[in-house]
Amino acid sequence: MKIYRFRYRRRVLTGVLKEEFLFPVVGSIFGDFSLASSPVPIGDVRVLPPVLPTKIVGIGRNYREHARELGNPLPEEPLIFLKPPTAVAGHLDAVVQPPASRRVDYEGEVGVVIRRRARQLGDGDPVDDVILGYTCFNDVTARDLQAKDVQFTRAKGFDTFAAVGPCVATGLDPAAIRLKTFLNGKLVQSGTTADLIFSIPFLVRYVSRIMTLNPGDIIATGTPAGVGPAAPGDRVDVQIEGIGVLSNTFSRPGGKEFA
Ligand code: MG
To answer: How confident is the model over 245-259, as a mean pLDDT?
Structure first.
């Protein structure tokens, strides 16, 4: 099932995609819902970020090859950081390079979307009902500021630096999600969650023991090797099998932020 949030005739709706039509959700995607019988053609809507998280938890250095390419040792525990909810951008929105940075990188990632409130999960606790599904995520990073600052808040917290979408897909196997990133159509990253140092269930339990996870929260599970800069005018596509493609163009400040 692919769940979209979208604008249609000035209304913001959530809907489930069936072929080329979105069937509006009645109820909540985080609880029980049914589908309205009057679908909307997906070509007639503007796709919005699929969820509005209360927080985005990022995981650093969760693929061996990426840790190596940045010259970092492999972590013994997950390295976590936060991106603010104000950083969210949707499919086809512009990612804006701030004047404070001279190097903004793309980081294609698998995003885990939380379904229900969860805290203090134990090692053996199931996470199937905690996870709603998965989405494409671009953990945009001002690499020069990340190197300069002691922590990641500035480098990863600018508005539009958390591109997410186009939808949340349910029913994927968290241990076998394949991800590719394209820069102007050229393949630059390719990975699978089979290669994660810390698995998705492990991360959900781990984070829940630090902070309460709320419905709609996102865990960005880390990026494979192949990160690099994107300049204003470049397009970055994060493609995940079973989800779709998240496409964003990078722009200068003062450029057109939202399509
Ligand atoms: Mg990242």
So the answer is: 79
How far is residue 63's CA from residue 71's CA, in Å, rounded to a whole number?
Answer: 13
Q: Which three-class secondary structure state does DSSP give residue 199?
A: coil
The model's pLDDT over 28-40, given as tens digits with 9 standing for 90+, comes to 999 999 999 999 9
Question: What is the distance in A from the centroid of ligand 1 to the CA of 220?
Answer: 7
d(CA 74, CA 41): 46
* pLDDT, tens digit (0-9, with 9 covering 90-100), for 170-187: 999 999 999 999 999 999
Q: Does domain 2-48 have CATH number 2.60.40?
A: no
Domain boundaries, the chain: 2-48, 56-258
Is the distance from CB of 219 to CB of 111 less than 8 angstroms? yes
Rounded to the nearest whole angstrom, what is the distance from the C-alpha of residue 43 to the centroid of ligand 1?
A: 31
What's the gap in Å between 59 CA and the centre of ligand 1? Answer: 6
**Fold of the CATH domain 56-258:** Fumarylacetoacetate hydrolase; domain 2 (3.90.850)
- Ligand 1 (ion): residues with CB under 5 Å are 107, 139, 223
Average pLDDT of the segment spanning 91-101: 96
